[in-house]
């Protein structure tokens, strides 16, 4: 649906498609949803950093934690970790309740999320036909599905019902082989947090500038003033007074303040949640479903509204209805689970 919208509007990004469908409000809403997604992912990565580096520090300093502390940090005790997994009961093929399904399904959908990148890939195709795009999507989804299935089965067969949301937590902190894995993952997560915070900050700036521009137009009563941007270029008042120093100072304060605010909020949330699974579940059931299903369906219906009703429009309408219900039900369940 997104690629169909892009072909019909000539846009190459997710936000531009939203703007083509609903104008400036559509761009603001789409940008805000993407901002929320990057914040959720930043929080999840910080939780992983917390869990991974706690195990590394524990293995280095050799501290022995009591059972309550181990449960709080998220580690299995050494004794439990040394149990033979094959001694457990047989495979569990069914979920205990619908709640387990509602908790896992958003994470499953989130793991395949690539919607905001597919448009740029589509725009760089030499011959961007529907058949070539389908071939790329099917091949990519097939490879990633195979990888996910292998990793999921290996993790489940190792610990069965004791498998944690972060598989590294199923290994003792003193495991020398897994220390190497923790170091690699820990360093990767630290670098990835920086990669996430920067675009998140840029998205915040876009939303702030867009809202400020609308407020300026509203307060000015339709009068035109000099444009305000975040480039730091030389700006002058109508009288010709230079304001570059003030503008540069304002930009520096805004950059530092926004970065500290994003990092501080993400760190607070990361220290407050019990595990990364909670973050992924809430993220997938809310903004994840919106990015993957709700917004593409709404964009498609809006752009194709003047066309005759057909099977594709019916499918888009069904996607919008089902995704809306899933957002409400799954998000409510995920939040209630996190509060327990």
Automatic annotation (TrEMBL):
Q: InterPro entries per the record?
A: AA_transpt_TM (IPR013057)
What is this protein's record name?
Amino acid transporter transmembrane domain-containing protein
Under PANTHER family, the record lists: AMINO ACID TRANSPORTER (PTHR22950), SODIUM-COUPLED NEUTRAL AMINO ACID TRANSPORTER 11-RELATED (PTHR22950:SF458)
Is Thylakoid set as a keyword in this record? no
Similarity-based family: Belongs to the amino acid/polyamine transporter 2 family.
Question: Is the keyword DNA repair in the record?
Answer: no
**What does UniProt list as this organism's lineage?**
Eukaryota, Sar, Stramenopiles, Ochrophyta, PX clade
* Entry GO MF terms: L-amino acid transmembrane transporter activity
Localization, per the record, is: Membrane
Residue stretches spanning the membrane: 27-48, 136-159, 179-198, 251-273, 279-303, 315-335
Tell me the domain of life: Eukaryota
């Amino acid at each position: 649906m997104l690629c169909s919208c892009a072909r019909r509007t000539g846009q190459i990004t997710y936000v531009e498609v939203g703007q083509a469908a609903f104008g400036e409000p559509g761009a603001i809403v789409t940008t805000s949803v993407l901002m929320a997604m990057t914040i959720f992912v930043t929080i999840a990565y910080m939780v992983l950093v917390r869990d991974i580096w706690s195990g590394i520090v524990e293995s280095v300093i050799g501290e022995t934690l009591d059972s309550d502390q181990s449960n709080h940090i998220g580690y299995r005790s050494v004794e439990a970790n040394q149990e033979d997994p094959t001694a457990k009961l047989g495979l569990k093929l069914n979920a205990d309740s619908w709640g387990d399904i509602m908790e896992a399904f958003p994470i499953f959908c989130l793991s395949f999320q690539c919607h905001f990148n597919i448009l740029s890939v589509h725009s760089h195709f030499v011959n961007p036909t529907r058949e070539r795009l389908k071939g790329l999507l099917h091949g990519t989804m097939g490879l990633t599905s195979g990888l996910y299935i292998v990793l999921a089965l290996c993790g489940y067969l190792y610990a069965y019902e004791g498998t944690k949301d972060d598989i590294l937590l199923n290994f003792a902190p003193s495991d020398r082989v897994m220390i190497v894995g923790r170091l690699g993952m820990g360093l990767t997560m630290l670098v990835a947090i920086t990669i996430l915070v920067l675009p998140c900050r840029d998205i915040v700036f876009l939303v702030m500038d867009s809202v400020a521009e609308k407020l300026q137009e509203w307060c000015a009563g339709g009068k035109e003033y000099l444009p305000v941007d975040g480039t730091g270029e030389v700006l002058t008042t109508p009288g010709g007074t230079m304001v570059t120093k003030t503008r540069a100072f304002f930009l520096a304060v805004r950059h530092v303040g926004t970065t500290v605010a994003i990092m501080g909020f993400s760190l607070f949330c990361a220290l407050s949640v019990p595990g990364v699974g909670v973050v992924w579940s809430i993220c997938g059931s809310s903004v994840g479903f919106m990015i993957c299903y709700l917004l593409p369906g709404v964009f498609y219906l809006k752009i194709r509204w003047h066309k005759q009703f057909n099977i594709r429009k019916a499918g888009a309408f069904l996607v919008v209805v089902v995704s809306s219900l899933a957002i409400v039900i799954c998000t409510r369940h995920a939040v209630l689970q996190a509060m327990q």
